[in-house]
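Pilot study result, target chain (127 residues):
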Amino acid sequence: MSDRLAEFRAFRERMNTRILEAGNLEIKRFFALDTRCYEAGALDVKTKELLGLVASMVLRCDDCVTYHVIRCKEEGVTDAEFFETFNVGLIVGGSIVIPHLRRAVDMLDRLNAGEGPESTGHAEHGA
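Predicted structure:
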């Protein structure tokens, strides 16, 4: 696993654990709601992760973009599907999304090169 992906995963897991251990009920509820949102329902998990990726690009949250690129890859999203999704994010968000598009494509390239995380800790998606 690349150092960047390992650091991302370790930091995310460590901080999620720390935040949840604080015992704030509202935060725990939000994290649980966030997790449940991405479960299969009328829409499958793959579609929900692609939607999360677009929203994250438009909101310009690099941590969330990274998370959703990883999850989409795990859900079997093809490069062609990624680039159509990136295009939706770019059209909706405009040129300000371009730096986040670059980082998303860099992450995809790293994953395609076999630098993927062993586990992404699926709970609390991008929170």
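One observation from the pilot: Residues 1-37 form one domain. A full batch analysis is planned for the follow-on phase.
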